[in-house]
Amino acid sequence: MAVSVPRVTAHSLAIVVSLLTYVLTTRVEHERRPPSIAIAWVLGLIAVPYLVLPLYWLFGRRKLQRKGLPATAAKTPRQHWAENLVESFGLPASSRSRVRMHADGAAARSALFETMAAARQRLDVCTYILGNDTFGREAVQAMTDRVGAGVRVRLMIDGVGAIQLPRSVFRQLRAAGVETATFSPLLARNTSGPRNLRNHRKLVIADDSVLWAGGRNLAGEYFTGAHGRPPWRDLSFDLHGPVAGAAARQFEIDWVASAGKPAAPIQSTTAADAAGCAQFLPSGPDQSEDTVQALLLDACFRTERRLLAVTPYFVPDAGLATAIRLAARRGVKIDLCLPANSNHILADFARNRSLRALAAAGVSIHLLPMMVHAKAVVFDASLALCGSPNLDSRSLLLNYESAFIFYGNAEIEWLADWITALIRDAKPFDARAPGFFRDVAEGLLLTVAYQL
C-alpha cells in the first residue's frame, strides 16, 4: 500500500515565510521590541499571515539607519549622571543657556514671534501641525516677512500634519520664497522607513543660536484658543546658547532626510554667562537607543524624594510603568497630572489599566478638568525634562521627538511649581476594578496601544 506524503499547504508556507521574514529582519536590523509587542506580531503572523505580513512591512520597523548628531570627541566626566548618560548616546554635552519659560499661550506666542524676528541669516521651523486658522496665518506671515528681510526660511512639517493643511498654504509659502519639506509624506517615498514613524518635534531656530521649543504645535488651540474655546494648557520655552545649535543640527539631518537642500552651519553665540544649564535630547528611529525612555527609566530608579509629571496621554510600556510603580513603593512622592478627557478617546481608555496599578502602589493621579497638552517631568531638585515627548509608547518608542533636559535650579523649580499649580483644580483618579467586559476591552486595546 502506497503511503501518501502530506503536502505543505499554501497556508503553512505563508506562515513559515512570514515568521522567517520577521526573524531575519529583526536580526539584520537589530530590532529590540518589548516582549508583548514581539508576541503580538508573531501570533498575528501565525493566525493571519496574509494580512499581518503586509502590515509588518508597513509598520513593523522602528529603528532606521540614519546619520545622527556627531559624537563628542572625548567623554569628559560630568557632575550629573544624566549628562554622562546622554553623552554616551553620542549626543552633545550640556551647556550654559539663557532660558525663559512661558507661563501661558500669550507668553508663548510673544516669544515665538520674537524668535522668528531675531533671525538674520536663517530661520528653521519644524512642526507637527500648522493650523489652518488665524494663528497659523500669523505664523505664515511671520515666515514670509523674514524672507522679505533677506533671511533663508525653511519649514518642515510632518506628513500627517500636512494632510490637514490646504495645498494653497504651501503654494503661498513657496511663492513667497519659503522652502518647504514634508517629513515622511503618506504617499510619496522621499523619507525612508514605515509610514507610522512620525516627526513630532517642535522647533523654531533662528541663526542656530536662538531656540523656541516645547510641546506646542503652531495652531490656535495651543496659544490663543480656537472655535470659541480657551487654549489648551501647554508648555514651551525659548533659550539662547549652544543648545540651539544642537537642535539646529538635528533639524538639518531631518531636513536633508526629507529631500530638502542642505545649509551650512551658522556660528552660534555661546551664552557662557547664562545662569541656566540645558541639554538637547532627541529620540526616535534615527537614534541607536530609545534615549528619552532610557533617561526616564534611569531617573525613576535614582530619584529619592519627588517625581512630578504632566502629560496629555499616558500609555507607557511595561518597563516605564514598573519603574514609576517601584519608585512609589520605596517612598518617592509621585504626582501624575493628566486631563480627565483628552482629545484622544482611545488613549484615555487604554491608560486605565496602568493607572490602577500605579494608584495601588501609592502614586497620586490627578485628573484635570481642562485639556492639558504639556509634557514635563521633574525628578527631585536636580533634573527636569520638557519638550515634545508624551509619556506613552508611541512617543517614546516610535516617533521622532525632541526633549530638553534642564539642570538649573530656576528652570526645575519653575516647572515643578507649574505642575503643582494644576493639582488645585484636579480630581483624583477612580481606581476601582473594572467590569469583565471593560477589562477585556482594555486588554485588547493595549495590544496595539503603542500605535495610538
Folded structure, characterized:
The protein is α/β, with parallel strands linked by helices and 452 residues long. The chain has three domains: 10-59, no CATH class; 95-276, Endonuclease, Chain A (2-Layer Sandwich); 291-451, Endonuclease, Chain A (2-Layer Sandwich). It contains 16 helices and 17 strands. It has helices at 10-28, 35-47, 49-59, 81-88, 105-118, 134-148, 159-163, 167-176, 242-257, 291-302, 318-329, 345-350, 352-361, 393-398, 409-423, 436-446; strands at 95-101, 122-127, 152-158, 179-183, 203-206, 210-214, 236-240, 276-283, 306-310, 314-315, 333-339, 364-368, 376-379, 383-387, 391-392, 401-406, 427-428. Strands 4-3-2-5-6-7-1-8-16-14-13-9-11-12-17 form a 15-stranded mixed β-sheet, with helices on both faces. A hairpin with a 3-residue loop joins strand 5 and strand 6. Helix 1 (10-28) runs parallel beside helix 3 (49-59) and helix 11 packs parallel to helix 13. The longest helix has 19 residues, at 10-28. It is globular, with a radius of gyration of 23 Å. The termini are far apart. 47% of the residues are buried. The model is unreliable at 1-5 and 71-76 (pLDDT under 50).
Short description:
By secondary structure, the protein is an alpha/beta fold. 40% of the residues lie in helices and 19% in strands. The chain folds into three domains: 10-59, no CATH class; 95-276, 2-Layer Sandwich (Endonuclease, Chain A), CATH 3.30.870; 291-451, Endonuclease, Chain A.
